[in-house]
Write a structure and sequence with these properties.
The complex is a heterodimer of chains A (about 230) and B (about 260). Chain A is built from 7 helices and 9 strands. Chain A has a 5-stranded parallel beta sheet, with helices on both faces. In chain B, the strands form 2 sheets. Chain B has a 6-stranded mixed beta sheet, with helices on both faces. Chain B has a 4-stranded antiparallel beta sheet with strand order 2-1-4-5, covered by helices on one side. In chain B, strand 9 and strand 10 form a beta hairpin. Chain B starts with 10 loop residues before the first strand and ends in a 5-residue tail after the last helix. The chains are: A alpha/beta (about 230), B alpha/beta (about 260). Chains A and B meet through strand 1 and helix 2 of A and helix 7, helix 9 and helix 10 of B.
């Protein structure tokens, strides 16, 4: 099956101009792809560049060399060179990104945050509303909290709102940066189940999971990021 | 799915340059802006961002370069070729300008309703009842108590004046809005509400906005794209979160690292 995401010779380094121009090599010559229904898990110790790679795919970090091809219908678009408005359109329709942190505008209630994310991702507003309720229930966010802004929630509750928000829309590509970190076993199992549903629906997933039980359940391939460690000259 | 993107830019700027005598105000600025896009121009005072905004709004004449604007009839027009009357019509109807200093953006001795109604009359509204009705509606949309319609802006707080400026500018359904530090000088809580309001209206109305700010958190919250200016030139530009999370230029890295994490 044709991949939805394909990394082709991707390299990235940071140059820290405020610190005598120190150069931090992150990854070099990264090649892998993700097809519909696949969940590619990025492995390797912390500092190997896993999160940076996800951010490069999402267009949040630039890359110095190589291509990140994302399939959009019959077209292939290179995130490395796409105009900002194209990347923003891809984020609306094609690729979603879920981190472990909830960053939202204050004063909006949890249910509305999740439903709004669904509408932004192209769901009809009634579907978005229903699915927001379904996901928040599945993720054990108590109904009495739904109308309240998540700023006052516990860390775990915020994280579950964030997962609901990240998974609600039907985007064909999902980037998951440790969405299950510090969740309890019951909620980890819910997330695993949601990821399996996405895979069955033909979504291509690239993810980072530190919990072994989660990783073993969802991974179709593990890509060891240390293989792409930049060669120090 | 991506063919919903408009092909023709609303505003197309090439090599825009302005000298003040020998000194550079801004130099060689080029960019395209599309409908629905919010572009933040950031940099410290003296970086040329206000000069750029004045050039774009045709308040200042360029030393070199061009600005093309796609009119409602779809035809891109070189702004330097407009007559004074055409230019003023554009400013009063198709464009908005929300200024840092509300006394420059509002008529301070005219009622709130009059401030909004004036722009409506510029586009041909004549029926008093309709004008008042629309003004009331817009006061509500910018969260000003409708009972204040006959009060003059002098009696308003700083935050209310900025909201009134927004209503005055948006009532004619402009396609392009310039904003010059619209939230600076306000209390933090007032600033946050105003930012929420602007963000909501901009996405609801699909406005193209060019916002000048020295505040990177305002840029992050409101804009899709960012241009960083220094010494009159654009030194870095791109997707807002890319420029702020992975800044390349030494000066941009300095700006970003100088912000207290919130």
């Amino acid at each position: 099956m044709q991949p939805l995401v394909q990394l082709d010779g991707v390299s990235k380094a940071f140059t820290l101009h405020l610190h005598e121009g120190v150069r931090l090599d992150v990854v070099s010559d990264v090649n892998f792809s993700a097809a519909p229904g696949e969940c590619i898990v990025l492995g390797g110790p912390s500092g190997a560049g896993k999160s940076s790679l996800l951010k490069i795919v999402y267009g949040n970090y630039s890359c110095d060399a190589g291509h990140i091809w994302i399939r959009d219908g019959g077209e292939k678009i290179d995130v490395a060179t796409a105009e900002p408005r194209r990347i923003l359109a891809m984020r609306r329709h094609i690729m979603g990104y879920v981190s472990q942190f909830l960053r939202v505008i204050p004063r909006v209630g949890a249910l509305e945050i999740v439903a709004a994310a669904g509408r932004e991702g192209g769901l009809d507003s009634q579907v978005a509303q229903d699915r927001a309720q379904e996901y928040l229930s599945l993720l054990n966010v108590p109904e009495r909290l739904w109308t309240l802004p998540p700023a006052t929630f516990s860390g775990g509750e915020q994280q579950r709102v964030n997962i609901a928000r990240g998974l609600i829309a039907d985007r064909p590509v999902l980037l998951l940066d440790e969405p299950t970190a510090s969740l309890d076993a019951r909620n980890r199992a819910v997330v695993v189940d949601l990821i399996e549903r996405k895979k069955k629906a033909g979504v291509a997933i690239i993810g980072i999971f530190h919990d072994e039980d989660v990783r073993d359940k969802v991974a179709t391939h593990v890509v060891d990021v240390t293989h792409f460690a930049a060669k120090t000259a | 799915m991506l063919n919903d993107l408009p092909d023709a830019p609303l505003l197309s700027v090439r090599d825009l340059t302005r000298y003040y005598g020998e000194r550079i105000g801004c130099a060689d600025v080029s960019f395209d802006l599309y409908e629905g896009e919010v572009l933040a121009v950031v940099g410290e005072s003296g970086s040329g961002k206000s000069t750029l905004l004045s050039l774009l709004a045709t308040e200042l004449e360029a030393s070199a370069g061009s600005i093309r604007y796609r009119m409602r009839d779809g035809i891109a027009c070189d702004l330097a070729t407009l007559t004074e009357a055409e230019r003023r019509l554009l400013l009063r109807t198709d464009w908005g300008f929300v200024r840092q200093d509300s006394t420059q953006g509002l008529r301070m001795s005219v009622s709130a309703g009059g401030n909004i109604g004036e722009r409506l009359m510029a586009v041909g509204a004549r029926h008093y009842g309709n004008i008042r009705g629309t003004s009331l509606d817009w006061l509500g949309r910018v969260e000003i108590d409708r009972g204040r319609i006959d009060d003059i802006p002098k009696a308003f707080s700083g935050g209310m004046r900025q909201r009134l400026q927004i209503a005055r500018n948006l009532v004619t359904h402009p396609r392009l809005v310039f904003m010059d530090e619209p939230t600076s000088g306000l209390d933090v809580s007032v600033q946050a509400r105003l930012l929420d309001l602007i963000r909501g209206l901009v996405s609801e109305l699909g406005l193209a906005v060019i916002i000048v700010t020295h505040d990177l958190s305002v840029a992050r919250l409101l804009s899709h794209r960012i241009m960083v200016m220094k010494g009159g030139r654009v030194i870095e530009a791109g997707l807002t979160d890319r420029v702020l999370d992975d800044p390349h230029q030494p000066y941009t890295q300095l700006l970003v690292s100088s912000v207290l994490a919130a």
